[in-house]
Amino acid sequence: MSKYRSIPKYPFRPSVTLILASLLVSCNGHMTHDDHQHDSGDGHHSEDLVGKPGLAHEVDRTVTVTMSDDMSFMPGNIDVKAGETIRFELANDGVLKHEMVIGKSEYLMEHAKMMQKFPGMEHEEPNMLQLDASESGELIWKFTESGNVDFACLQPGHFEAGMKGIIKVL
């Protein structure tokens, strides 16, 4: 008699296959640099943002925002109307890299912590624009709901130094 016994071969059941397939699909969802799964397809939980990426042909008006090495945005407070699509013309007047990221304060704080942990992390999302020294660019955003929306520079140390502002959506 052998010490080893053979292991019977059982057919792989379809229900197990479906469960494994659904786990693979859910684990392979929209993963971004912050290691969270997102539902909206643009890198964010929909509750993190007030609004959505805007389209150039829908722009209602343009707002010029300057970012500087004194860790400020000019203007730091912006008023818009719900339903408005805004083209933010951004200019980095400093010698440091800056960015404008639009989102709720909780999201911005979480993102700033992540940037502190991984300072060289490159990221690009529809609610942000990152600019090197003396660069300029544009960010188009449609504000769909009234309320306050925050914006900030999330480069390491900038948010903590006070580089943030508020968009009041009326």
Question: What would your notes on this structure say?
Answer:
This protein is an alpha+beta fold and 170 residues long. It has one domain (48-169): Cupredoxins -  blue copper proteins (Immunoglobulin-like), CATH 2.60.40.420. It has 2 helices and 12 strands, in the order H-E-E-E-E-E-E-E-E-H-E-E-E-E. The chain has helices spanning 14-27, 105-117; strands at residues 30-31, 37-38, 52-53, 61-68, 72-74, 77-80, 85-92, 98-103, 128-131, 136-142, 147-152, 164-169. A 5-stranded mixed beta sheet has the order 3-10-7-4-5, with no helix packed on it. The protein has a 5-stranded mixed beta sheet with strand order 6-12-11-8-9, covered by helices on one side. Strand 1 (30-31) and strand 2 (37-38) form a beta hairpin. The protein is globular and about 35 Å long. Mean pLDDT is 77; it is low at 4-47.
Give me the number of helical elements.
2
The oligomeric status of these chains comes to single chain
Strand count, sense and barrel status of the largest sheet are: 5 strands, mixed
* Topology, number of strands: 12
Lateral arrangement of strands in the main beta sheet: 3-10-7-4-5
One letter per element, helices H and strands E, the order comes to HEEEEEEEEHEEEE
- Strand residue percentage: 25-35%
Outline: globular
Name the structural class.
alpha+beta
What's the CATH topology label? Immunoglobulin-like
Number of domains: 1
Q: How much helicity do the residues have?
A: 10-25%
The appropriate CATH architecture is Sandwich
CATH homology superfamily name: Cupredoxins -  blue copper proteins
**CATH class descriptor:** Mainly Beta
Mean pLDDT: 77
Contiguous runs where pLDDT drops below 50 for at least 5 residues: 4-47
Kindly provide the radius of gyration, computed on alpha-carbon positions and rounded to a whole number of angstroms: 22 Å
Distance between the termini: 84 Å
